[in-house]
Amino acid sequence: MALKLPPYVHAFRDRHGKARYYFRRRGFRRAPLPGLPYSSEFMRAYEAAAQTVGEFGSSRSRPGTVAAAVAGYFASSAFASLAESTRKDRRRILERFRDHNGGNAIAALTRRDVEALVEARKSRPGTALNFLVALRALMRHAVLLGLVDRDPTEGLRGPKFRSDGFYTWTEQDIAAFEARHPVGSRARLALALGLYTGQRRSDVIRMGRQHVRDDVVHVRQSKTGKSLAIPLHPELRSALQAVPANNMTFLTTGHGKPFYPDAFTHWFKRMCREAGLPARASFHGLRKAACRRLAELGCSVSVIASISGHSSLREVARYTAAADQARLARQGIEALTGTPSGKLAGQSGKPRSKALK
Q1: Residues 90-117 pLDDT 10s
Q2: Which domains does the chain carry?
Q3: What beta strand segments (E) does 27-163 contain?
Q4: How much is the pTM?
């Protein structure tokens, strides 16, 4: 199966048969991309090209158009204050909107137009909702600058849908990954960092020995800005002791360089496939598994959030609710049968020794 290239990347072979890659998009500067796709140097050049498109587009846009409004929003303090991952997603959504509507007047966008745009995406409710959120931010910026009199997205609700989000790793998944990737491997270290700190990809790939002091991992979350102090779990300590201490970050590429987020995602997905995990298994699922383990051990919502750093306790409450349901169900079966439910299932009933504490 051919490797899927990032958006707006074009490939060809030169007269010597060497593969060449370029960032090419209508209305934007053409930029060469060195190295192999998803390597650190490739992603560095790719992200640099993507970061300059908004400013380049603004000078070519007529005032009052959608294109000019989008470029202005990208240069605003409101956009700059967003988390890096949110900026990336919002930029992608609004650039696509600009590609199709850039020459239209921003003031001509009506509520009916917005409803039609959301309706066109209704087959993918999550996509429709993200589009509405991004467009609302753009229109609020346009109102603030006086480009429009009224926000056409005001009061408009996105589609309702049910989703469990990212796949949560099971204990069987974790055991299979550990069996395939022993202590001392980069993959095992990545697993330990995700499972025993409960942090997002963006924070894990920045972690280094400078963040560990007195057996505590100190994290400042890139998405929320929240500072956390997480005691070092024995399993994570063992994984760290088994790898060289000659890099600024714990996790590095095959060339010893820090990972870029997308490159790390593709690499870790490959490690999951090697371990025979479900296709849905991703690094973020380890964060959810960490929360699940804590909930199953009876930890409160506040305790779990003190490690994961969740800003909203509603999502954390889902883990505790699921754990409480399972615990109460076991008690019910025990009451009916007079036999511990763990023994009925052929289990020891003992708490998991490796659970994140």
Answers
A1: 999 999 999 989 889 999 999 999 999 9
A2: 171-344 (1.10.443.10)
A3: 31-32
A4: 0.66
